[in-house]
Amino acid sequence: MGKGEGESLETEFASGTTCHGFNRLAVAKKWPHRAFWTVAILWGFGMTTWMISSRIEAYFKYETSTEIRVEEKYALEFPAVTFCNFNKYRRSAMTALDWYIYANSKLAEKYAFEADYDPEATAALRAAFEGFEANLTATYPGGFDFGNFTRRIGWELNNETMPLCLFRMKQCFPENFTHAFQSEYGNCYTFNSHHDEDSLSLQQTRPGAQQGLYILFDIQQAEYTELLSLNGALGVGIDFQIHSWYERPNVAQHGLGAGVGTAALVSMHQNELQNLAHPWGNCSNDRTLKHFPRYSRSGCEVECYLEKVLELCGCKPFSYPGNAVNCNPVDQVLCADPTIFKVASNFQKECGARCPEACQIIEYPPTVSYAPFPNYYMAQELASMYGTNANYASENLVGLSIYYKDLNNRLTKKNPAMTPSGLLSDIGGQLGLFIGMSTLTLMEFGEYIIFKIIQCCRKRKPKTSQSKESGM
Fold first, then answer.
1. What single DSSP character describes residue 359?
2. GO CC annotations (predicted)?
3. Of all helices (H) and strands (E), which one includes residue 266?
4. Confidence of residue 6 (pLDDT cuts 50, 70, 90)
5. What is the pLDDT of residue 12?
6. Widest CA span in the chain
7. Which of 456-465's residues contact partners 24+ apart within 8 Å by CB, and which partners?
8. Could you say which DSSP state residue 285 is in?
9. Distances from the Cα of 86 to the Cαs of 214, 235, 362, 470, in angstroms?
10. What band does 462 get if pLDDT is binned at 50, 70 and 90?
11. What residues pair up with 182 in beta bridges, in sequence order?
12. Does the pLDDT at position 463 exceed 70?
């Protein structure tokens, strides 16, 4: 009786389940027929297991696909633009003491760089410049501040050095620029650098030069103090960088140059890159920086360098953010610079883990063309305006026109090659293709297992009762 009940349960399940093949096996009368369906069912389950395991393995590789599309916009936020003069210090503003400090700091920088920041050579240089350091201490009892020194005698942006500024054909002024230190250039100035997320940004609503930024600089070549013997800058003109407003500019590394006597036509477009966070990538959206309003990898790198320099030197480079004491020229050249060089040489170990890519990166790739400036009649006009000769414009003036050539956002977006829902769909597809299973079929198997357990428990009860009666 028990055996018959057991067979009827299996037969009932095989005949009624929605899993393909079992019902054919249940009604098969001859062994070849049964063997065929047994092999078919085993093959179906084997293929299903193999395919599902391969899809699960593919999912846990966390591979990505890249989507590229061009989005048409009615307006684009105008980027920040940082401008630097190739001349770091103004000749007319420098005293004999300033020249002494400038020359010695440049010589120390030159020798340290030539020695490749070797520790022994750096120690020897510190001994050689011991007198210079002592003079600084005696002259500035409260401590020499390289930042104040640079602000005082560095490049100034005013109505003389920037005689013309237009944005969307409306006049702009030096007050619309924000001061920014750059170690190589000293005083630099950023247009459209709003300080926080809530500040209003400038936008370009139509493509073309007339809707962008136009600036005329007078770099005042007579003020130049760059000397070949002191490894001075080779250019005469303006170095500039286009960047996102929340990023710290690095004009020496990413800048574009415009020499005197030229008009630079800079057309740009907007590229947006959207990266993925863990586990498909390593970008970060939730990291915050001490000195920058929004996370960027460049800002994180600066803060990493800053921490290392403060730890080893007790001061910071004057161009770095924060309220720590600025390094004097000797500490800057013989401690801060070698520390930054060492960290940069081993960046992945020192800063790589703490400075992943941002999840959203916006870039503004430029295309630059140059034209001679000014034309003959404009040179005569400018000569009468400045009260100089006609050559003054070609020797001192730089024109810059920066604008969007179109109002398209070129989006490059990384997507998971397989999402959790995609994995479930794949698993469902393999189950349906090879053995015709669905979620409800799994419930049928669960129901069968429960009934089987109940049946086994019922079979054991009579045996247990019988053994008790025998014992009595």
1. S
2. plasma membrane
3. strand 262-274
4. very low
5. 76
6. 132
7. 459/2
8. S
9. 19, 6, 27, 109
10. low
11. 186
12. no
Residue (of 146, 214, 218) closest to 182 by Cα position: 146
Q: Selecting from 1.10.10.10, 3.40.190.10, 3.40.50.150, 2.60.470.10, what CATH number does the domain 69-416 have?
A: 2.60.470.10
Q: At what angle do helices 2-16 and 439-471 cross, to 10 degrees?
A: 180
- Give me the helices (H) in 346-416, please: 347, 376-386, 391-396
* Residue ranges in 205-278 assigned as alpha helix (H): 251-254
Query: Which position has the token pair 């883990």?
Result: 353
The alpha carbons of the chain give a radius of gyration, in whole angstroms, of 37
Does residue 325 sit in helix, strand or coil? coil
The Cα–Cα gap between 449 and 461 comes to 19
As a whole number of angstroms, the distance between CA 413 and CA 20 comes to 42
Q: What is the pLDDT of residues 284-342, one digit of tens each?
A: 878 889 999 899 999 999 999 999 999 999 999 999 999 999 998 888 888 898 899 88
Cβ(177)–Cβ(190) below 8 Å: yes
Amino acid 45 reads: F
The residues spanned by each domain of the chain are 2-61+420-471, 69-416
Question: Residue 159: in which H helix or E strand, if any?
Answer: none
Predicted TM-score (pTM) of this structure:
0.83
Reported as a pLDDT band with limits 50, 70 and 90, residue 24 is confident
Phi-psi region of 334 (alpha: psi -120 to 50; beta: other; left: phi over 0): alpha
Q: In this structure, are strands 80-85 and 237-243 parallel, antiparallel, or unpaired? A: antiparallel
What confidence tens digit (pLDDT) does each residue in 347-387 have? Answer: 888 888 889 999 999 999 999 999 998 988 888 888 888 77
Pairing of strands 170-171, 164-167: antiparallel
Q: Which residues contact 13 (CB under 8 A, 6 or more apart)?
A: 22, 444, 448
Give 286: exposed, middle or buried? Use CB within 10 Å, 0-12, 13-18, 19+: exposed
Determine the residue type at 52: I
Report residue 129 CA to chain centroid gap.
Answer: 40
Strand, helix or coil for residue 416: strand
